[in-house]
């Protein structure tokens, strides 16, 4: 990297008693990059984010945030971070505008500068008409946009977003993506965790997939799809409960699910033709491009983790 990375980790470990939540990971995040963490529950994403945000100290390994040591310089680092937690923690006793101006004062901004920043961020979040409203009546999407706006009030060098669109409807999610994309265009460095594969594909320049506290894959969304999946996936459904997986061997990688069979192939139409040539008659056939979700499930499995 031509510039010093904003996040640098080598052999980073976090233990809670006998449990190792983060098991020796290496990563770097460059200025202006949108970087993502993917992984099932318990993979170590949140523990890593808490170390990056300087609210949890590493057990061992090397970690530098903005070129500083979080153990010795945590307060200096936190002053230059913007944090959007998974759950909104807005102040319900304050108006929308006051949630921004009051938070700005924590960073030592003057009253005039706090008001200026609030006005700018209300426009960014498309909340100008709600500036004097209380927080409680806001929709989930509005609250999320306000939380992200609040994270920007100190003009941070690095913005951390933990599951930024969880629980939002599709319209609110897409509006929030557009707001985050605008931040990315401005050169803001974003680090996010998400369970939405399409969100990761939309927002992330680069990401890591974590499982069991370790990084199991790293790269751009497109490079990960190219490396760990096939160009196309055929989804087959059959009307009866016969085990058809064995009859599909040799066409491509077969992944039987309770309700359908996924057939990974270089050419989806050619794979479908071969299915029919073998005398099989699926009740429905869908050919689609391979996605980051296919990569995620290939790397971390389909077992539900509580």
From TrEMBL:
Which InterPro entries does this entry report, sorted A to Z?
AAA+_ATPase (IPR003593), ABC_transporter-like_ATP-bd (IPR003439), ABC_transporter-like_CS (IPR017871), ABC_transporter_ATP-binding (IPR050763), P-loop_NTPase (IPR027417)
Membrane topology annotation: Peripheral membrane protein
Domain ABC transporter, residue spans = 7-237
Asked if the Swiss-Prot or TrEMBL record annotates the protein with the keyword Translocase, the reply is: yes
Molecular function GO terms recorded: ATP binding; ATP hydrolysis activity
UniProt cross-references to SUPFAM superfamilies, sorted A to Z: P-loop containing nucleoside triphosphate hydrolases (SSF52540)
Alphabetized UniProt keyword annotations: Antibiotic resistance, ATP-binding, Cell membrane, Membrane, Nucleotide-binding, Translocase, Transport
Q: Name one Pfam family in it.
A: ABC_tran
GO BP terms, alphabetized = response to antibiotic
> Membrane spanning segments where?
none
Q: What is its main location?
A: membrane
Location of this chain's protein in the cell: Cell membrane
A GO CC annotation recorded here is:
plasma membrane
Q: Which family does it belong to?
A: Belongs to the ABC transporter superfamily.
Name under which the protein is recorded: Lipooligosaccharide transport system ATP-binding protein
Q: Which organism is it from?
A: Streptosporangium album
Recite the lineage of the species.
Bacteria, Bacillati, Actinomycetota, Actinomycetes, Streptosporangiales
């Amino acid at each position: 990297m031509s510039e010093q990375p904003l996040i640098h980790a080598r052999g980073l470990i976090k233990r809670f008693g006998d449990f190792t939540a983060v098991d020796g990971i290496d990563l770097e995040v460059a200025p202006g990059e949108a970087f993502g963490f993917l992984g099932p529950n318990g993979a170590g994403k949140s523990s890593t984010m808490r170390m990056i945000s300087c609210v949890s100290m590493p057990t061992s390994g090397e970690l530098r945030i903005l070129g500083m040591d979080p153990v010795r310089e945590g307060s200096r680092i936190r002053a230059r971070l913007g944090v959007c937690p998974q759950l909104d923690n807005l102040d319900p006793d304050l108006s929308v505008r006051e949630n921004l101006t009051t938070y700005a004062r924590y960073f030592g901004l003057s009253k005039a500068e706090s008001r200026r920043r609030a006005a700018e961020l209300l426009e960014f979040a498309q909340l100008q008409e709600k500036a004097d409203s209380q927080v409680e009546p806001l929709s989930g999407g509005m609250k999320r946009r306000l939380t992200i706006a609040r994270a920007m009030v100190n003009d941070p060098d690095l913005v951390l977003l933990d599951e930024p669109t969880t629980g939002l409807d599709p319209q609110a999610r897409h509006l929030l993506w557009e707001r985050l994309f605008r931040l990315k265009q401005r050169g803001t460095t974003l680090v996010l965790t998400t369970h939405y594969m399409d969100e990761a594909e939309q927002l992330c320049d680069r990401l890591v997939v974590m499982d069991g506290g370790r990084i199991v894959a790293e790269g751009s969304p497109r490079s990960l799809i190219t490396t760990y999946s096939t160009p196309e996936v055929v989804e087959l459904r059959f009307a009866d409960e016969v085990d058809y997986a064995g009859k599909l061997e040799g066409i491509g990688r077969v992944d039987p699910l309770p309700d359908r069979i996924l057939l990974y192939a270089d050419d989806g139409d050619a794979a479908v033709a071969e299915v029919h040539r073998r005398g099989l008659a699926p009740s429905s056939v869908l050919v689609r491009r391979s996605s980051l979700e296919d990569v995620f499930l290939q790397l971390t499995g389909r077992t539900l983790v509580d």
